[in-house]
Amino acid sequence: MSGACAFATSPSRPTFSAKATTLRMSGGSIPEVKLPPSLYEGAAAAGAAKSQAPFGKIFKLGIVSGAHIAFGAYLAITVGGACPGIAAENPGLQKMILGAFGLPFGLIMTLITGGELFTGNTALVTAAVMEGKASGKDLMRSWIGSYLGNFVGSLLLAYLAFTSGTLGAGPASAAIATAKCSLSFKVAFTRGILCNWLVCMAVYMASGCSSMIGKMTAVWFPISAFVALGLDHSVANMFMIPLGIMRGAEITIAQMFVKNLIPVTLGNIVGGALCVMAPYGMSFGGWFKKKE
Fold it and tell me: What is the pLDDT of residues 34-67, one digit of tens each?
């Protein structure tokens, strides 16, 4: 993903067509990238397609996506959560390791295979509704189906990770779960906003790339950043908190929802729908514009 690249069509300088819908780059390592108006149009179209899926399909693909994100969190805990020496001597480096190894590959698996991730749907399906391509009922079916499916998939992976014995005696999972359920509502809500701002930017940018390497690049930076920053993703927490409970964290089911999942989920909705899609919808789409 490094190295110089030149805009195609001319070896000396870039040329652009007024009707171009993509930014074409040469060199093989950088894919076609949609221009901003086309990027938004494609995201809204993707949201419209998602919104028309039946509940059962959304739920089943949601289970798979929940498992994918859980695998990412599992890896993050196994690698980044098992560096107590680095955390003590160089906490910034430990946070970078925690972010770089894990959740990025979980989201890549979901995006490439066509899964249903609640946090991404807060942006894409909202855009479809605001453009008149989906209804409020469609939005609720998408959000509820993907959220429930994500929760089931995350719980399944939490149980499998717990019974696998691969985490050893390390205290990371219990400590992470305890910390996440010790936040105030305001802090958890705010972390949820910031987290899904980055997650949905990853989803949004990846939707404009036509190759695997482009999508991986679009995903890796925002996702590793949100983990390193210590922000909260509702679906990842559906894995990490139950796993922590299984490994001895003194947290009740009620505390898991009230102290974390509810405020984080609400924050994730704000981050995806308002912080990401609203600015682009008002700039390139028809949000809040009078129809003639």
Answer: 999 999 999 999 999 999 999 999 999 999 999 9
The residue type of 155 is L
Give, as one character, the DSSP assignment of residue 259.
Answer: I
Q: What is the DSSP letter of 22?
A: E
Q: Distance between CA 266 and CA 47 in Å, rounded?
A: 20
CA distance 292 to 61: 38
Alpha helices in the chain (DSSP H): 36-51, 55-79, 84-89, 91-100, 103-113, 118-130, 136-164, 172-180, 185-207, 212-229, 234-246, 253-256, 262-270, 278-284
pTM of the model: 0.86
Per-residue CA distances from 251 to 8, 77, 191, 233, 287 (Å)? 56, 19, 20, 18, 42
Residues above pLDDT 90, as percent of the chain? 76
